[in-house]
Amino acid sequence: MPSPVPPVLKEIAPFLQRAKEVEHADPVMAYWCKYYAAQLGIEKGTGHTEAQAFLLPLMDELEQVCLQTLTQLKATLSENEAVTNDAIGQTYIENFALQVFLGADNEDREGKASRYSFLAASKFLELLKVFGPLEADIQTKVKYAKWKAAQISKALREGTELTPGPDKATMETEAGQTTSEDASQAPADDTDKLQWPQVPHETDAPRVQVMTARPEDQTPKPRAEAPPPAAQPLDPEDKPESGLSVSKIAHIQKLCRWTSSALDYEDLETARTQLHEALLLLDTARPST
Known about the structure:
Layout: H1 13-22, H2 27-45, H3 49-71, H4 77-84, H5 86-109, H6 115-126, H7 136-158, H8 168-174, H9 188-193, H10 246-264, H11 268-283
């Protein structure tokens, strides 16, 4: 974002930074980073004028991305469905985040540990909060990635040798101290070395299983169920029987999502505004009597 992040919204800064880093390599991930930043911002910025002023342009940007996505469905269907279909989007984010985590873990075990890789992995995994509470295994990976990043920083600062892989006893003792680690700032030389994963666009892509312990300690996990195939999209300007274009329906859905998010945090003013706009749009499709 061109304007600085207000202090009250400092927790969204790492996600906006991740969005900036991947916007060219993976626009879908950049979209979801900004989406979660806005969602988190509603929670943290309730009642703060400066926060509302910062968030409104971000919400407008997300709406424009969504509408542009609908107009490009025919050209890049699978990629765009990762924005317009929540089930596919969740799978896309999880695969991307786990591949970043796996890359960081592999580098660590090869003696090439990168603090930034683990921090980036933790933030990408946290994007799954968009769809609800994190599953236990994802929570474990977030916790591990933040802890590992702190361990790498400590080793570099003190000039000590870093032990590759997990140390369960030390992790359990120190993990609670690492959750506030800020991933929004990282040395440029670290970010330049990262190669972002190419996530398969097929909806039946298998879930990546990443080990935070040695292979002999692992119990095989079943492959995650693939989300159901999305319905064949309509042209954005086609008007089905409802009388609403696909782009207008997408706008109404977006307004309803923001209404729900605002209500989660008892921000009644924002919820009322978004819902009122959605109802006005729906009224335009009301059949004449």
